[in-house]
Design a protein that fits this description.
The chain contains 4 helices and 12 strands. The chain has 213 residues and is α+β, with helices and mostly antiparallel strands. The protein is globular, with a radius of gyration of 17 Å. It starts with a strand and ends with a helix.
């Protein structure tokens, strides 16, 4: 698999992760992880700043030195990084909104809304209404595992192609999870503000086209 470079300088590397690729190796995972490809490209150790789900696609950021890694991880922890996603949700989402339901991980590995869970906040905006689906711009203000997927499922609008959350799986029979990380805004370790963009790929656009009105 070739590495889609979105931004690179002496301290940072941002790449476009394809759907189905893991960021870091895990138990039972197959295929070369994105971090290994990034390290091979850089010719030296890289540091994982954040992760997105294996089934999703889009922008992933690596640091090239420990100081940059600490600085960027701190920004994520302090919620100073703006993260935007494109998501195709099942059904007609009535209007823009937000979800503030706490999320908890259950023994099955699934995440669900629970009063015993951790605080989670997701904002969504309607981009386009399609046939039986709604394209959303989603901004998670917290970074819980499967946050967008679990919150929209709780709302009654699971993501198309989701193999975990939905009455039928994958939801809508879509060939991939329709969740794409398309924008990050953060402060570079040198102090300047960066906005990185990652347009959805052909596989995402093909599913969108299949739901066109």
């Amino acid at each position: 698999m070739s590495l889609g470079i979105l931004f690179e300088d002496a301290r940072l590397l941002a790449v476009d992760k394809p759907a189905g690729t893991v960021v870091v190796p895990g138990r039972g995972e197959v295929g070369e992880p994105l971090c290994a490809l990034a390290q091979a490209h850089a010719g030296a150790k890289v540091f994982v700043v954040h992760r997105i789900d294996r089934e999703s696609s889009g922008l992933v950021l690596f640091a090239k030195d420990a100081e940059a890694h600490r600085e960027l991880c701190g920004q994520f922890a302090r919620r100073e990084v703006r993260k935007l996603y494109r998501a195709l949700a099942l059904g007609g989402v009535a209007a823009d909104g937000e979800i503030r339901e706490p999320l908890k991980e259950f023994g099955s590995g699934r995440i669900g809304v629970s009063p015993a869970g951790k605080a989670a906040h997701t904002v969504f905006r309607v981009v386009k209404r399609l046939r039986g689906a709604t394209l959303l711009e989603v901004e998670p203000h917290t970074g819980r595992r499967h946050q967008i997927r679990a919150h929209l499922f709780h709302l009654g609008h699971p993501l198309l192609g989701d193999p975990l959350y939905g009455k039928e799986r994958p939801v809508g029979g879509a060939p991939r999870l329709m969740l794409h990380a398309f924008k990050l805004e953060f402060s570079h370790p040198d102090g300047r503000r960066l906005r990185l963009d990652c347009p959805p790929g052909a596989d995402f656009e093909a599913v969108l086209a299949s739901f066109a009105v």
